[in-house]
Write a structure and sequence with these properties.
The protein is α+β, with helices and mostly antiparallel strands. The protein has 9 helices and 19 strands.
Amino acid sequence: MELDTFLAAAVALLAVPSTADRPEQLRSAVESVLDFVGPGFLVERFESNGKPSALVYADGHDGAPRPEFRVILNGHLDVVPGDPEQFRPRREGDRLYARGAQDMKVSALVQAEVFRELASTLPYPLALQLVADEEVGGRDGTLHQLQQGVTGTFVIIGEHSRLNLVADSKGLAQARLRAVGRGGHGAYPWLGDNAMVKLMNTVARLLTRYPVPTEEVWRTTANLARVETPNRSFNQIPAQAEAWLDIRFPAEDGDLNGRTPEQIAEYLRSFCEPGVTVAVDRVESPHHADHDRSEVKELRQAAQRQGYPAEFLYKHGGSDASYYSGRGIAAVAFGVGGAGQHGPDEYAEITTIVPYYRALKEFLEGLRSNTDD
């Protein structure tokens, strides 16, 4: 890798304001990386709900259908919104500042560099998967491609990790609690049935089961995101109330993992007072890859030979890896270093770019074409 040449390409990509509300810029980011990869590969383009994505792989299958890929390199090119100056990349010492530098355009571009160098030479099919909706859930990128039949054995998602590995990410359940009571004058509470009290008693039971942690812990957490009532008067008993819950759970949680939205709603109803109902809006599976899996071990060893500890990290937020994990496909997050994700001073550590590139290359070149779980 010629670092200065790579950084020039990275700066151009980081200047693209590829946010969810700018579909033309999402498409520009995807096409920019496809141009970076260059000709000589098969490119499948996808689109779902206006969100573009692409799958790139070597043309060596004599007209056969798309193969099951031994490895998929997954990179997302969308970013969260930022001020205009955040789309004017700048280098200060060993830091490259820009929206998306850490999360995760630089890692995605390294994946593209490695892909174009190796994809035609490896004894197994390798894919580069470029998506543009991870920041808004990934359902129109990674999930859409999986629904169209894209599949593989092992996936490396280029999320920032400073060459550590994320083999575990939490799932999520987002739910609404709705309470119904009987209105009345606030001076005569015995004549009414306060919906807000019912709701808060229910929330209290949930938070007793899932107390708010005071430090980082790998367990299920419940965030009370919103509480509201249509009541607008001090002297009125609320007849209705609603609360929003954001629940994050690891694969080890048998109450939530593997459950349907209906089953999760039934579980949450066990905490509810009479008059409180549950509606589950969204459920995403947790992600887990076996730490002793051969590819995981070999990727760690490749990073360690670059001088990095390659420790296991645990991600409390969601990840596109859950879409793979839910289909029995092993996936890990593995990317460059940096800091300031989603903040005004986001940056990538330039010193981690070449080691990341070398670790990916070594891993892919040493990997056997057959699976060895």
